[in-house]
Amino acid sequence: MRNYAHPDLADVSIEHLLHALSDPVRLDIVRQLARNGEASCAALDGGRPKSSMSHHFRVLRSAGLVHTRIAGVQHMNTLRREEVDKRFPGLLGAVLRVAG
Amino acid sequence: MRNYAHPDLADVSIEHLLHALSDPVRLDIVRQLARNGEASCAALDGGRPKSSMSHHFRVLRSAGLVHTRIAGVQHMNTLRREEVDKRFPGLLGAVLRVAG
């Protein structure tokens, strides 16, 4: 299977990033990755339907928030925290503090 | 004409707030209100169509970001900065710093 595409953070607008964070499922994924580090899609789905989760991960990748690498049959996700913080200083930290 | 309804910030979720901020027109309105204080809808529309602006102001009000009062024929808008900051400490400041 092919690898996923990940945008350069320079090409991500603040509106795009905020939109990606404006959904409870996606915000929860970001919160979990920030707290626990790399995790598989399966570990993050909370029992939600696979098709809906694929959509959410796609949105998170396109906003530069999540990196997904393929490791055998698993898709492993990490938060692109350093890059996001460099592009939007203080923003993700503020969201995560408020979102718990 | 009747007054507009404004939600209690306690009833606004972070996702709702982030969604309201995830559009360039709405983010621009918030930025202008933060910088310049109260302004009429006309002063904030940047020549955009009235129907589209009505939608954006409605979204901003429903997310607890903007208060609109009717003053004769004008609709005057303010940012509910203090209330938003109390409900979501540091969030709006971080967005505005990044959004310029």
TrEMBL record, chains A, B:
GO molecular function list: DNA binding; DNA-binding transcription factor activity
PROSITE patterns named in the record: HTH_ARSR_2
Lineage: Bacteria, Pseudomonadati, Pseudomonadota, Alphaproteobacteria, Sphingomonadales
Top-level lineage group: Bacteria
Species name: Blastomonas natatoria
Protein's recorded name: ArsR family transcriptional regulator
Record InterPro entries: ArsR-like_HTH, HTH_ArsR_DNA-bd_dom, HTH_MetalResp_TranReg, WH-like_DNA-bd_sf, WH_DNA-bd_sf
CDD domains xref list: HTH_ARSR (cd00090)
Pfam families, A to Z: HTH_20
SMART domains documented for this protein: HTH_ARSR
Domain HTH arsR-type: 6-99
